[in-house]
């Protein structure tokens, strides 16, 4: 195959390496057709050969990988892995610890068709040295599924995400990725970059939706015609005024209070955009179901509005019962099945309302939720002044 | 023995070949079409969905088990899989629809249309004998409903009837959660129809070419499919699909597929591009050809299954034969249609990978333009609602498509987001009035009927009451 001299041609040729070599050529005879009786006869004879080779034919071979085995190698990588590498900051060349590493394998099934037929995923994060290690995938959905693709995604807030298949800037083919010993350089996020494009680039799914929710409001504005830089200026101007619920509770606090030994992915709930009067924290237990998650909502407004907000919670939360065991007022709530426990409190003079909702596998009793609420309340007292008072 | 043979045949027959790959090319085409359309602004203006394409919509897994069974087979980073609560953006639901239309593969049998023969997949084609012996693949595809008919077929659970139903309920249903679910399903249905239309941009789909789908793809002897479409997935993926061309405007839904003016996507694809299995057969160059250039063109026409495309009369019979891909047949737009080489006085046609990639760069934006237009067509109805002094005045803005016969449904929303239907009516001279209840925070109006071309539609409008 010819490699043309344009940049696109080179990219295209790299992609094509995964297809069998040779011309895209089918010898055609418009008149010649296999006549059905002869076809049937030969099919019967070949059945013996067919049955014999079925086991071999049916073996699921992974498709060739489009990445190299190592950075210094021309050997083709293996879609199954294992994968290893290091994530670095583009400016400082220092390791980026705590970046999300999301690995996924895509399967297709069928003979002569390529309908999606399952996936496998692995979620982890970089260590203090920015290193990651994704173990070899030795599982398969079964049912004749063939391994068709592998994708690695690296995400950390404040940086442009990284995909092993596509670059962010021009969405062209990623050619630097290798199976082992990869060096992944994360570019710092810049105000002029598009959140709408970045959300498309990162993709969706449970592991990523919460992490990227903070980008949604700006992405919506961009689709409505606003320019990213303008949005960034507006955001910078408002940054000093915005509430920051993450100051009140961290993943480490929860682990300490509940005894949970796993890891959390911290993000925002994304139900409403963060503002001067509202912010959220969403702690999603990595590799666990929702019953291990915790959500924190924080409102800060006038004392009257805060009281109304608390009343709304009393009316709306399932099974809400006023208890007044913390701050000025508090309530306990629980879903009918008891799988989510809730606790809200009102600090009227500070105009603060806090709602904590915790899965029952993480917070086994309301006492645990109360412990978390008490910790939060101590921080509310130091963080926020009474309305009208000066700190 | 017959039973064993039948079992083997059933096991190994390729039920149908896919067109563009579902979770790469289709998702990318649909995404580009959505971004090229004006739907983001329309969702904000007429449906009061502030987030537009990024409006979060929750469709609870327990409320759509069949859909979630398919979504469970998709890689989450594909951008079409909701979070654990069943929530993702309106755009992602649209993409999800364009992906699940190809699942299971049997649905793909309904994504063919040959505008010359005016038929879909017949299901009578056998695989070549050598391939059967090598791999056990005995056939490609069963009979299917022609693509333009499939989107309106009763048996299609993601067709136009489902779309209208869900779209209407997304406005008139009482609770916000319920409305979100209906809007999500409306987008899934719209995405599924886009998938069918996008397939009309694949030449083999419009030229009755099933041989194309039996080419080796690299994952072992039985990994067979369309090399052209695998190439699209490899070169562009989902994210790199080129931006859609300008949204194409057509009078009716079927016109986007095929029409008497030859401007349906299937019509254009059939007439513009070869597929690997419908290239001209080998042509022996007659001795007189050098003095009568038109003679070769006539012979090539005779060796072609379809009337177009045709190489020009001035097809060079000499050139850079040392090139691995041979000589190039180009269309009027300069894009490669096929390669050919002359060996022992015989012209052999092929499509090289470079030629196919050039074709894809021309085809995908065109497909995106048709898909964007189709999407705008589905959501083309808009109403203006202005509430003053307790009366809502409904009209059709001059900039919007004018409406024909149909019924209006008036819906009011209270401060808690609950809606109720408060009456029905008709447009008279393009307007209608409604007395707004005192507790209404917002008024919605739904028109269900036909447009001025007699095509079905649902038009929606809303206005703040306070």
Low-confidence stretches of chain B: 1-18
Q: Please tell me how large the radius of gyration of chain B is.
A: 25 Å
Discrete helix count of chain B: 14
Question: Helices and strands of chain A: which structural class?
Answer: alpha+beta
Task: Describe, in plain words, how this protein is organized in 3D.
The complex is a heterodimer of chains A (391) and B (466). Chain A has 391 residues and is α+β, with helices and mostly antiparallel strands. Chain A folds into three domains: 83-189, Carboxypeptidase-like, regulatory domain (Immunoglobulin-like, Sandwich); 191-239, no CATH class; 241-383, Protein Transport Mog1p, Chain A (3-Layer(aba) Sandwich), CATH 3.40.1000.70. Chain A has helices spanning 7-16, 36-58, 195-202, 206-212, 216-223, 228-239, 251-258, 303-316, 366-383; strands at 83-89, 100-109, 115-125, 131-134, 146-155, 162-163, 182-186, 264-267, 278-285, 294-300, 321-322, 329-334, 340-347, 352-359. In chain A, the strands form three sheets. In chain A, strands 8-9-10-14-13-12-11 form a seven-stranded antiparallel β-sheet, with helices on both faces. In chain A, a hairpin with a 5-residue loop joins β2 (100-109) and β3 (115-125). Chain A is elongated. Chain A starts with 6 loop residues before the first helix and ends in an 8-residue tail after the last helix. Chain B is α+β, with helices and mostly antiparallel strands. Chain B has three domains: 2-272, no CATH class; 280-350, no CATH class; 382-464, Immunoglobulin-like, CATH 2.60.40. Chain B is 34% helix and 18% strand. Chain B is built from 14 helices and 16 strands. In chain B, the strands form five sheets. A five-stranded mixed β-sheet of chain B has the order 9-16-15-12-13. In chain B, β10 (384-388) and β11 (391-395) form a beta hairpin. In chain B, α2 (22-36) packs across α9. Chain B is elongated. Chain B starts with a helix and ends with a strand. Chains A and B meet through α1, α2, β2, β3 and β5 of A and α1, α2, α3, α6 and β3 of B.
